[in-house]
Specification:
8-stranded parallel β-barrel; 12 helices; binds (2S,3S,4S,5R)-3,4,5-trihydroxy-6-oxo-oxane-2-carboxylic acid; glycoprotein; glycosidase; carbohydrate binding; GH; EC 3.2.1.31
């Protein structure tokens, strides 16, 4: 069998295998897009809001606040959606609130959505942190656990009960974390009445970012026909100059269905087509998807139009869904990361979804500014530390060729009680939700199942082996990793990962103030890891806090000078090791971000090379110089980007 044919068969077998891996989830989670058969109604803007301040935090459920307009059961305030609610008001109790908060929005849905029962109306929440319960006109329509992934419910029947089309959406959201949530947390009640007031409790968390809460991503109503395209999975490959797109389409609500799949280039010309729910599209003279700064035309996307003609015995339906598709391959050797069979070196950043006032709420000006800063910096990649980011951000990555390591919210798994079956089952569901949502993004090249878990604990071995294995079953086309903290995990977990990702903070948390230890300690660490596992390494975090505007020379900790030299000392070792097995460097962090208050944090974590307001510190210029030099050495710079100073 010649290679391309063999590959096609393997891809097709995998696609079928995915449908047969004992999935915990039912159905797809395609991003809502308008088409000739689908409408989208965004519900961003002002919602009404009340925090349930009752001691039990259960008053809203006891009094069934969802049954009436929220303002009829107590005082309400305006809050924006999407946004975290924490920094919107002047009330510290709202900023630090733990428990149920209630959101409500009223609208009138278009008459034809009510009258035409061949239309399916779906309510979708992009994400809400952490547990959510949703009602429409007082009727419970769905619940969801997890703060970073979308969920939805069909609401056609509920809205049709009111012929006027008036629709009241109530969403209760609770940010309480437990030892079984992802990320985990733990409520501690302080019962010593000589020291704490009645009812005093704190939420202990084992991660270093503020536990922002609320409805963080857009809420939408969208329609499909009753028979509809429920999910699409694509896997891409190429052989010489022929691109190969294997696909599977799943359809719901149809008795008979005919599918036509057409792949179009950027000009809208059809480059390949096929019929039926699965197949392989062959694209002659393929334009591959290349990362930013590696090609003159990075981020090339085709459009895959899926057209369904279906019938359910009574009615015929047409549904159209168009998916952007980038054609590329990803492979890992013992020393390299290959995109389209060419070595790829990650020179990028770790980020957070975080900014003034809106917290973790999706904000387009911020997203666009961040992409402009990434490009200015010459960054070709980022890791979605420490949870899945908004789909809108991944779409930008696809279009701009920014490579993504896509991380689950498995951060701060430190307590032995978080390694039990309940946590594991939830982690497996979260990985399924993540892969289901992000599997078709060309920019996503690796899954990260967790950040710095206490992998030295005995139960962690079984736990992570299971999560990594399940993730590989879900998607054998992408490497899987988890992020290790310094030496702790050297003997655990690493056997199962494809790429070793290491975080360390030499001359910061270890040997503070001793910049001179960085080269020797980093060198030792790399040699140990690579010597033992013969796998490529990414420096997935390194850095130092710098309070912007604070200068001391010779450098001391927390100054801009110290941050610069930490970076430069790391870079010396990176330059030796990238000739061998180091395949990437991701600075911690792109920008300063908010954390829980504590004695080591000066109004948040200041390891950003940009401030929280996205202004560069001295270190940003060091990194910019380096990243453009790396891009010149390792990539093929497009003409217009050769001279970053003219940007
Ligand atoms: C880490 C964590 C990250 C922290 C960072 C720090 O290892 O992965 O979440 O923010 O260190 O600054 O301490």
């Amino acid at each position: 069998m010649c290679l391309p044919v063999k590959r096609q068969v393997l891809r097709a077998l995998w696609l079928f295998a995915v449908l047969d891996t004992g999935l915990l989830l039912d159905g797809g989670m395609l991003y809502p897009r308008e088409s000739s058969s689908r409408e989208v109604k965004e519900l961003s803007g002002l919602w009404v809001f009340r925090a349930d301040r009752s001691p039990s935090r259960k008053q809203g459920f006891d009094e069934a606040w969802y049954k009436r307009r929220l303002e009829e059961t107590g005082p309400v305030i305006d809050v924006p959606v999407p946004a975290s609610y924490n920094d919107i008001t002047q009330d510290p109790a709202i900023r630090d609130f733990i428990g149920w908060v209630w959101y409500e929005r009223e609208l009138v849905v278009p008459t034809h959505w009510i009258r035409d029962d061949t239309i399916r109306v779906v309510l979708r929440v992009g994400s809400a942190h952490y547990n959510s319960v949703v009602w429409v006109n007082g009727v419970s329509v769905t619940q969801h656990e997890g703060g970073h992934l979308p969920f939805e419910a069909e609401v056609s029947d509920v809205i049709r009960k009111d012929p006027t089309g008036s629709c009241r959406i109530t969403i209760a959201v609770n940010n309480t974390l437990t030892l079984q949530t992802l990320p985990p947390g733990n409520i501690q009640y302080m019962n010593d009445r000589t020291r704490y007031p009645d009812g005093f409790f704190v939420q202990s968390i084992y991660f270093d970012f503020f536990n922002y809460a609320g409805i963080h991503r857009p809420v939408l109503l969208y329609t499909t026909p009753k028979a509809y395209v429920d999910d699409i999975t694509v896997v891409t490959d190429f052989s010489d100059n022929t691109g190969l797109v294997s696909y599977i389409v799943s359809v719901k609500g149809a008795v008979t269905a005919a599918l036509k799949v057409t792949l179009m280039d950027k000009q809208g010309h059809c480059v390949a087509s096929s019929n039926g729910p699965f197949g392989v599209l062959k694209v002659q003279d393929v334009k591959l998807w290349w990362p930013y700064l590696t090609h003159e035309n990075p981020g090339y996307l085709y459009s895959m139009e899926v057209r369904l003609n279906a019938a359910d015995g009574r009615t015929t339906y047409e549904d159209v869904y168009t998916l952007p598709v980038g054609i590329r391959t990803v492979n890992v050797t013992s020393t390299q990361f290959l995109i389209n069979n060419k070595p790829f070196y990650f020179h990028g950043v770790n980020k957070h979804e975080d900014s003034d006032i809106r917290g973790k709420g999706l904000d387009w000006p911020l997203i666009v500014k961040d992409f402009n800063l990434l490009k200015w910096l010459g960054a070709n990649s980022f890791r979605t530390s420490h949870y899945p980011y908004a789909e809108e951000i991944l779409q930008m990555c696809d279009r701009h060729g920014i490579v993504v390591i896509d991380e689950s919210p498995g951060v701060g798994i430190k307590d032995i009680r978080s390694f039990g079956n309940a946590s594991l089952s939830h982690h497996l569901i979260v990985m399924e939700e993540l892969v289901r949502r992000d599997k078709n993004h060309a920019s996503v090249v690796m899954w990260s199942v967790a950040n710095e878990p206490a992998s030295e604990m005995p139960p962690a071995d079984y736990y992570f082996n299971t999560v990594i294995k399940h993730t590989k079953d879900l998607d054998p086309t992408r490497p899987v990793t988890f992020i290790s903290s310094s030496n702790f995990a050297r003997d655990k977990g690493a056997p199962y990962v494809d790429v070793i990702c290491i975080n360390n903070y030499f001359s910061w948390y270890h040997d503070p103030g001793h910049l001179e230890v960085i080269p020797i300690q980093l060198n030792t660490e790399y040699e140990n890891w690579h010597g033992k596992y013969k796998k490529p390494i990414i420096q997935s975090e390194y850095g130092a806090d710098a309070v912007p505007g604070v200068h001391v020379d010779p450098p001391v900790m927390f100054t801009e000078e110290y941050q610069k030299i930490v970076l430069q000392n790391y870079h010396k070792v990176f330059d030796q090791k990238r000739a061998q097995y180091l395949i990437g460097e991701l600075i911690w962090n792109f920008a300063d971000f908010m954390t829980t208050q504590g004695v080591t944090r000066v109004v948040g974590n200041k390891k950003g090379i940009f401030t929280r307001q996205r202004q560069p510190k001295a270190a940003a210029f060091v990194l910019k110089e380096r990243y453009w030099r790396l891009a010149n050495e390792t990539g093929r710079l497009p003409l217009w980007t050769k001279y970053p100073c003219s940007l």
